Amino acid sequence: MLSRVAAGFPSPADDYIDRSLDLNDHIVKHPAATFYVRASGESMLGAGVHDGDLLVVDRALDPRPGRVVIAAVDGELTVKRLVREGGRLLLAPENAAYPPLDITGREDVEVWGVVTHVVHAL
């Protein structure tokens, strides 16, 4: 059972909850197509992705422009926002310190999935 909280005290009724919470029920829509990766670096800070965060990735979703994706570039995984700019397709960081990567027509780039959730410690 999951109750909402407004950064205040929990509801006294929560003492009577008899089911445990399974996060998979809330963050995984396509179990057979979902995998997890750990973020590394600071290129996606503007999207709320921090170094060491756990990313939930769904391969069943369409990697449309505007979505944050996991892509293999030259065999190395990266997390970036997929952006269409004019006739070009870019893997764009959410940190001005990093340049976007134009992937238009590149054969060494494969989008592996769409990031649906970010889990990080406070």
Task: Give an account of the 3D structure.
The protein is mostly beta strands. The chain has a seven-stranded antiparallel beta sheet, with no helix packed on it. It contains one helix and seven strands. The longest helix is centred in the first third of the chain and has 4 residues, at 24-27. The protein has one helix at 24-27, and strands spanning 34-38, 54-58, 68-73, 76-85, 88-92, 101-102, 109-119. Strand 5 (88-92) and strand 6 form a beta hairpin.
Write the layout of secondary structure elements.
Elements: H1 24-27, E1 34-38, E2 54-58, E3 68-73, E4 76-85, E5 88-92, E6 101-102, E7 109-119
Antiparallel strand pairs: 1-2, 2-7, 3-4, 3-7, 4-5, 5-6
Q: What is the rounded Rg?
A: 18 Å
How many extended strands? 7
Helix- and strand-based class? mainly beta
Cα shape: elongated
Helix fraction?
Answer: under 10%
Largest sheet: 7 strands, antiparallel
* Percent strand: 35-45%
- What is the N-to-C order of secondary-structure elements (H for helix, E for strand)? HEEEEEEE
Q: Given the structure, what is the number of helices?
A: 1
Termini distance?
23 Å
**Average residue pLDDT:** 90
| Strand order, largest beta sheet | 1-2-7-3-4-5-6
pLDDT < 50 runs, ≥5 residues? none
Task: Give the gist of this structure.
By secondary structure, the chain is mainly β.
